[in-house]
Amino acid sequence: MNTQCDFLVIGSGIAGLCFAIQAAKSGSVILITKKNDTESNTNYAQGGIACVLERGDSFNSHIKDTLTTGKGLSNEESVRILVEEGPDRIKDLIDWGVNFSKSDATSNPYHLHLGKEGGHSENRIVHAHDLTGKEVEETLLKRAHSIKNITMLEHHSAIDLITDYHLSHTLQPDTSCHGAYVLDNITKIIFSIQSKITCLATGGAGKVYLHTTNPDIATGDGFAIAYRAGAVISNMEFIQFHPTTLFHEKANSFLISEALRGHGAILRDVNGREFMDKYHPLKSLAPRDTVARAIDNEMKISGEPCVFLDIRHADPSDTREHFPNIYANCINFGIDITKDMIPVVPAAHYICGGIKVDTVGRSSIQNLYACGEVSCTGVHGANRLASNSLLEALVFAKRASDHSAECIRRISTVEPSAIPAWDDTGTIDNEEWILLSHNFKEIQSVMWDYVGIVRSNVRLGRAARRIQLLEKEIDNFYKRTKVTAKLLELRNLVTTAKLIVSSAAQRKESRGLHYTTDYPEQNDRYWKKDTILSRLKHR
Ligand code: FAD
Ligand code: SIN
Q1: Exposure winner among 170, 269, 312, 331, fewest CB in 10 A?
Q2: Tell me: the pLDDT tens digits for 113-146?
Q3: Global pTM value
Q4: pLDDT digits (tens, 9 = 90+) for 273-299
């Protein structure tokens, strides 16, 4: 079966939905998503979206904060675009119906309540209480569902991109993308969706680690899919560990938003002593890499399994009003944040690297765009400034859809009959699945133990050997077995782990989110550059 459209969008988070909504003005869109349409990192975003709206704030200040956090690796042009186009994108969201938290302030155009987060010099975080992602996701989905040109297919997993390789069996650097092979997770049928433009918006890879703030969908599919197709992948070593997730065996690394620290919460050790003053002048509101490493260090010194976040000094009704989600979740675990200190630990949260794209979202493969967390626009460099991720997705999804809409008229499609049907001859049903199911845990444990907040040559070497072995086993199994959604995720998880480990091993310095005890200093002479991985030799 071969289905056709102008734009194939893979992923229904903020990036995929924004791309689809804009692209639908220029052609037919099929948007596929592997679970329910709401299931995405976007849906769980708490803190908000960074944007210069306040009279006393300035583009230059937001640019400076982003560049400082990025530790010399951010692309200045991309950062300028991000910051300067931000206000228009927030206006789009408001026009589409997103209901952000308001205040009496007349110093910004929409009377928004603007929060503060680590690394920001000003209050510039637009938010909907501490449920920003849910509000944005629901509004975008409502809009996308109302547009006739968009067909949304839930429970459909992208398996692999269709490229020239499938037409000619040679993998060339100037290869073009013609769509994707897709598994319908309900009927188990695999079919091809042929498209003029394909946009990968598959989000992040938190599930590569044992402890993560990310939901189950974040298995790194887009990185692995693009890598297999020959795309250039960049800066995968920069994994952001969020400093504060709830320490409780049943809490599943529930995020305690940085906005709470923006609201005055202070990090303390088990004896109630503030410790961040030892590490950074901004104390509890220092950039995340510093805070996560400081917590890791304090836990190692004390031997305690967590540190604590303290907001007891704030007005309780104010805390409850601003953070209803965090308050309610903590109450479920027996913690009243207005009266008790909150036990917290770091967990994997965000990946700064990804599919290398230019300022209009183009990857190194023709007609393949990427936006959102799966892409590497150069904005974040070696570390992401808080709440710049949703903004990046908004700004660059719009640019990608505008650019691809311009190009689409010039793209000639190949004959549908030239696209080979999915071939699963010789594969069997997965009775042996049980043998592989524990590989998920193995990958996650290896990555957590050896490729975490603090790295070393020995640890990375160990991780590389283990991941290589696991990849071989999974690949053999994949070749003999009928694909399922779970098997696809496992295959993508191990490939993404491999990309992270090899990028981390390449970078022989410490910078931003990549800290190794073997090269503890930043080395601008040799390493003020991106790490690059590709199966093809690009010019
Ligand atoms: P996602 O929102 O993750 O969407 C990816 C989509 O792709 C999903 O629909 C998924 O099902 C689909 N998909 C994946 N693989 C496949 C496949 N093979 N086939 C089909 N579909 C597939 N950032 C901020 O800026 N501010 C915040 O306050 C903030 N808070 C956060 C809080 C939490 C708990 C988390 C986890 C992240 C937070 N972030 C925040 C980061 C931010 O939410 C994400 O970076 C952003 O939402 C990513 O959007 P996206 O559209 O790229 O991906
Ligand atoms: C948070 O609310 O702390 C998350 C913000 C982000 O990831 O940018």
Answers
A1: 170
A2: 999 998 999 999 999 999 999 999 999 999 999 9
A3: 0.97
A4: 999 999 999 999 998 899 999 999 999
Query: Which ligand sits nearest to residue 213's alpha carbon?
Result: 1
386 lines ligand 2 (CB under 6 A): yes
Compute CA 111 distance to the chain's CA centroid, rounded to the nearest angstrom: 29
Sign for the pseudo-dihedral over CA of 129, 132, 136, 139: negative
Q: Domains in the chain, start-ordered, CATH in brackets?
A: 2-237+352-414 (3.50.50.60), 246-348 (3.90.700.10), 433-521 (1.20.58.100)
Residue 379 CB partners (closer than 8 Å, separation 6+): 66, 70, 74, 75, 78, 79, 82, 388, 392
Q: Which of 41, 120, 190, 213 to mutate to test the pocket of ligand 1 (most atoms within 8 A of CB)?
A: 41
Written as six digits, the tokens of 123 are 């209050």
Centre of ligand 1 to C-alpha 40, Å, is 5
- Are 189 and 1 within 8 A, CB to CB? yes
Q: Residue 167: which pLDDT band, with cuts at 50, 70 and 90?
A: confident
- CA distances for 508 relative to 378, 517, 521, angstroms: 20, 10, 9
For residues 430 and 483, the answer to whether their CB atoms sit within 8 Å is no
Annotated catalytic residues are 288
Ligand 1 closest atom vs CA 50? 25
Ligand 1 center from residue 276 Cα (angstroms): 30
- What residue ranges line ligand 1, CB within 6 angstroms? 10-16, 32-35, 39-42, 44-49, 132-133, 157-158, 201-204, 213-214, 217, 221, 255, 350, 372-374, 387-390, 393
Quick: pLDDT tens for 484-497.
999 999 999 999 99
Measured in degrees and rounded to the nearest 5, phi and psi for residue 432 equal -85, 5
Pick the ligand that lies closest to the CA of residue 361. 1
